[in-house]
């Protein structure tokens, strides 16, 4: 029996638009990663390291749980 993958979602796209319509490229530059990395994180195809997750939250000046949500805690 295999375990289901972690269900981490994020609000990066919404946060970019509420922060002066920041582009994926601009966010990538501020994080020191490629635009492709930002796209993959935004589409939940890639989970960032804990350090990068905090960096993303810091860019938007919001708590970590406003950027990333873990669906595993929701009642069935």
Summarize the helices and strands and which ones pair or pack:
Elements: E1 8-10, H1 12-18, H2 24-31, H3 35-42, H4 50-60, H5 64-67, E2 68-70
Antiparallel strand pairs: 1-2
Helix pairs in contact: 2-3
Span from first to last CA? 20 Å
Structural class: mainly alpha
| Strand count | 2
Rg, Cα atoms, Å: 13 Å
Summed up:
With 76 residues, the protein is mostly helical.
Structure write-up:
50% of the residues lie in helices and 8% in strands. With 76 residues, the protein is mainly alpha-helical. The chain has a two-stranded antiparallel sheet with strand order 1-2. α2 crosses α3.
Q: Keywords, please?
A:
single chain, 76 residues, two-stranded antiparallel sheet, 5 helices, 2 strands
């Amino acid at each position: 029996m295999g375990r289901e993958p972690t269900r981490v979602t994020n609000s990066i796209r919404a946060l970019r638009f509420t922060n002066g319509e920041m582009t994926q490229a601009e966010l990538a530059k501020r994080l020191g990663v490629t635009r492709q990395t930002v796209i993959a994180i935004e589409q939940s195809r890639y989970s960032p390291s804990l350090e990068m997750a905090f960096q993303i939250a810091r860019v938007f000046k919001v708590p970590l749980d406003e950027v990333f949500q873990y669906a595993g805690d929701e009642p069935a």
